[in-house]
Specification:
Blueprint (H helix, E strand, L loop, with lengths): L1 E7 L4 H11 L5 E8 L5 H8 L4 E3 L8 H14 L4 E5 L7 H6 L4 E5 L11 H8 L3 E8 L9 E8 L6 H24 L3 E4 L2 E4 L19
Parallel strand pairs: 1-2, 1-4, 2-3, 4-5
Antiparallel strand pairs: 5-6, 6-7, 8-9
Helix pairs in contact: 1-6, 5-6
This protein binds 5-O-phosphono-beta-D-ribofuranosylamine (GRF).
5-O-phosphono-beta-D-ribofuranosylamine binds next to α1, β5 and α6.
Length: 218
């Protein structure tokens, strides 16, 4: 069993996926607190529905981001969280926050890192013309979307895709890989060497994907 702190800013569908996976007893975790920097985040409603403690932290109430992150650290520590999951948390964390929880902060990013870090990355993937995109769960370091990768899922990009249709396809996979990544931590199967994450006793993935399909070879 792992104690989670979840940081959100928006609709919270990843939070919902984590809640649902816990309820289905496929994820051995307890959400100790859900924190939002946006008082109107629908994610907060989702947490309340399951009687999960919530907290709103607004930067404007603090003299600096450092001070607000200091408070965030205190709240998370006082709830004895083992792992922090950023789930659509739309604000950068200060180095002091990241150092307070070394290798214990996860993020979900809607692209195949290290391609397309940053914001509106589904739009960037469509515009670039990549044939595959996907999502990545990674450990948060002090860079933007640069930390060690725990798990990725790949989806095809179709010729008529828009930002919205690609985002929907990717989001479905986010809801599968995020709970799985957390479960790896709950099972104590995560080993990190330099920037490589290894999952103990995980089967090797075989096979190749092409888009469009290769037809001239069997
Ligand atoms: C997801 O696409 C996630 O990858 C990104 O922000 C979006 C949040 O969605 N970081 P939700 O709030 O979990 O629905």
């Amino acid at each position: 069993m792992i104690n989670l702190g979840i940081l959100v800013s928006g609709s919270g569908t990843n939070l919902q996926a984590i809640i649902d996976t816990i309820e289905a007893k496929r994820l051995d975790a307890k959400i100790k607190i859900v924190i939002s920097n946006n008082p109107d985040a629908f994610a907060i409603e989702r947490a309340k529905k399951y009687h999960i403690p919530t907290f709103i932290i607004q930067d404007s109430h603090f003299p600096s981001r450092e001070e607000s992150d200091k408070h965030l650290v205190e709240i998370l520590k006082s709830h004895s969280v083992d792992l922090i999951a950023l789930a659509g948390f739309m604000r950068l964390l200060t180095p002091a926050f990241i150092r307070a929880f070394p290798l214990k902060i996860l993020n979900i990013h809607p692209a195949l890192l290290p391609a397309f870090p940053g914001l509106r990355v589904q739009k960037k993937a469509v515009e670039y013309g990549v044939k595959f995109s996907g999502c990545s769960v990674h450990i948060v370091d002090e860079g933007v979307d640069t930390g060690p990768i725990v798990i990725q899922a790949v989806v095809p990009v179709h010729e008529n895709d828009t930002e919205k249709t690609l985002a929907e396809r990717i989001l479905k996979e986010e809801h599968r890989i995020y709970p799985q990544a957390i479960q790896f931590f709950a099972e104590n199967r995560v080993e990190i060497k330099d920037r490589k994450v290894m999952i103990k006793d995980s089967p090797k993935v075989e096979g190749v994907l092409e888009n469009p399909p290769v037809k001239i070879f069997k």
